[in-house]
Amino acid sequence: MKEFAYARAGDADEAAALIAERPDATYLGGGTNLVDLMKLGVTGPGLLIDVSRLPYDRIEHRADGSVLIGATVRNGALAGDPGIRERFPLLSQALLAGASGQLRTVATVGGNLLQRTRCGYFQDVSKPCNKREPGTGCPAIQGAHRDLAVLGTSDQCVASHPSDMAVALVALDAVAHLRSVDGGSRTVPVAELYLLPGETPHRETVLDHGDLITAVELPPPPPGARMRYRKVRDRWSYAFALVSAATAVSVAEDGSLQDVRIALGGVAPRPWRARIAEERLRGARPDEETLREAARAELAEARPLPDNAFKVDLAIDLIVAGVRDLTARKDRA
Q1: pLDDT (tens digit, 9 = 90+) per residue, 259-272?
Q2: Bridge partners, 251 (sequence order)
Q3: Residue 10 burial by CB count (10 A; 0-12/13-18/19+): exposed, middle or buried?
Q4: What's the pLDDT tens digit per position in 167-226?
Q5: Interior angle at CA 198, CA 142 and CA 133, nearest 5
Q6: Which candidate, 235, 80, 91, places its Cα nearest to that of 171?
Q7: Residue 7 DSSP class
């Protein structure tokens, strides 16, 4: 591991001042991903600025039904929050499906959003990788790509995004609150936080150097919404998604789909909002043929590689099953 300096920020202004002085500095939350990458030599910041004790550790349930989740809230605390479990169950389910109990007690919400791909070539510094070193190539395209992306890829990168929590947040129309080094603030929908690789796979988010995620905001859930997070993985214990689906639906009195929200994980370089399928299903009756046609339309632009082509059919099945199961019984939540 490369030698580095460490500083614990007492407040957001101090954190901003520290990172503004050092282009090689980065923020440290729980460190469950960052420290692993430092050990592997994938990244080597010269200064770690510990922001884990900044006052962003609260979950605020508001009177209008929205929720403000501080960026330093631990994943385990968020998954177990009674209000989240009751009104946003797919978020709790996604958190419990990701990592292990030990990691959830350490990992933070902000850090979870910014975790990096688990592509083996990215994590192996003896191999070329356009995401790690632009212009060196993407050996995954001809090599081991079974677990990687089929949507939103480019000739430069086919890595997939690893976060379960981010998939749920995208389905819930969550918004990230950001603080810049000059003290300014802005909000970005979580669905727009991540960049597709295109010709610049090393640029993963819209964040500028020194931008700090301070909170994530959930709008009130749609009235009568039923929701669920489903994850397919190679083993039941701690494993990343082959394909996952966060689904939320509201059903009208006549049985048609009043509102539909679907986000997919494991299939793209970012959490994938299935807007084509949503548009086709909104106002429709959720019969098997309609669901499958909408799911196929969503995956029509997929660019699978030989060893991950199965993800296309798997994603279609998860979209169909997610909506079908939530609409099968009116008393299901």
Answers
A1: 999 999 999 999 99
A2: 257
A3: exposed
A4: 999 999 999 999 999 999 999 999 999 999 999 999 999 999 999 999 999 999 988 999
A5: 65
A6: 91
A7: E
CB neighbour list of residue 86: distance below 8 Å, 6 or more residues apart: none
Contact residues for 301 (Cβ-Cβ < 8 A; gap 6+): 151
Which residue in the block uniquely carries the two structure tokens 């489903």? 230
Structure tokens at 45: 């910041």
Dihedral angle sign, alpha carbons of residues 200, 206, 211, 213: negative
**216-240: string of b/e by CB count within 10 Å (b at 16+)?**
bbbeebbeebbbbbbbbbeeeeeeb
Q: Which of 147, 111, 98 is nearest to 33 (CA)?
A: 111
Over 70: is that where the pLDDT of 289 sits?
yes
Handedness of CA 151, 154, 158, 163 (dihedral sign): negative
- What is the token pair recorded at 271? 């959490």
Residues 6 or more apart in contact with residue 312 via CB below 8 angstroms: 150, 299, 302, 304
**128: burial class by Cβ within 10 Å (0-12, 13-18, 19+)?**
middle
d(CA 79, CA 94): 8
Paired strand residues for 154: 157
H helices of the chain, where?
12-21, 34-40, 75-80, 82-87, 89-97, 101-104, 109-113, 120-123, 164-171, 275-281, 288-298, 310-327
Q: Which residues pair with 231 in a beta bridge?
A: 244
Report how far residue 69's alpha carbon sits from residue 57's, in angstroms, rounded to the nearest whole number.
8
For the entire predicted model, the pTM comes to 0.96
- Edge-to-edge strands of the sheet including 257-265? 226-232, 243-251, 257-265, 272-273
Q: Give me the helix-helix angle, 89-97 and 164-171, nearest 10°.
A: 160
What Rg value do the Cα atoms of the chain yield, rounded?
20
Task: Note the pLDDT tens digit of each residue in 131-162.
Answer: 999 999 999 999 999 999 999 999 999 999 99
Distance CA 201, CA 270 (A): 12
